[in-house]
UniProtKB/TrEMBL annotation:
Cofactor(s) this protein cannot do without: Zn(2+)
Catalytic activity line of the entry: cytidine + H2O + H(+) = uridine + NH4(+); 2'-deoxycytidine + H2O + H(+) = 2'-deoxyuridine + NH4(+)
Main function: This enzyme scavenges exogenous and endogenous cytidine and 2'-deoxycytidine for UMP synthesis.
Protein known as: Cytidine deaminase
GO cellular component, one term: cytosol
Enzyme class, broadest EC rank: hydrolase
Source organism phylogeny: Eukaryota, Fungi, Dikarya, Ascomycota, Pezizomycotina
Organism this protein belongs to: Knufia peltigerae
Amino acid sequence: MSTRSSIEPLSKEELKTLATKAIDAKEYAYCPYSNFRVGACVLLSDGTYHTGANVEVASTPVGICAERCAIAPIVASLKRPAMPTLRAIAVATDISPPASPCGMCRQFINEFATTKDLPIYMYGKDGIDQGGDGNGVVMMTIGELLPMSFGPNDMDRNR
Ligand SMILES: O=c1ccn([C@H]2C[C@H](O)[C@@H](CO)O2)c(=O)[nH]1
Ligand SMILES: [Zn+2]
């Protein structure tokens, strides 16, 4: 998506739902090779939530991360350009501080983000508990996670 526009901030309720769904999605991870569970959830501008989990295969580079697992079916099942925009993504792992999306997923998220300000919330072993040792949720935007990105706009600039 090449249009850049601002997105509506999440309400407390929406963020809690997004986080809970990402954390719950870890249960669906198929990760017998790494035993590293990852869950993801995307909130769209139409109010729908879409989850994913990492899926590994014996030929280990072939597996897919939770983030791309959540996003690809959205893109493949909704009509563009009217496709709802991404409002936020949550990623949940069992480590603390939480893991952040890999480079491949950052590029994938960037492709479908309509703003550099798309928030990515990362949850670790403390789940949605933001208190305790301060190692709870981490939030960064896709612009922060992938600075000076190469994306759809750059392809347009070459036409
Ligand atoms: O943000 C991340 C980081 C890792 N993984 C997966 C890939 C692999 O299945 C396992 C270990 O790298 O975790 C994700 O799904 N998302
Ligand atoms: Zn990834």
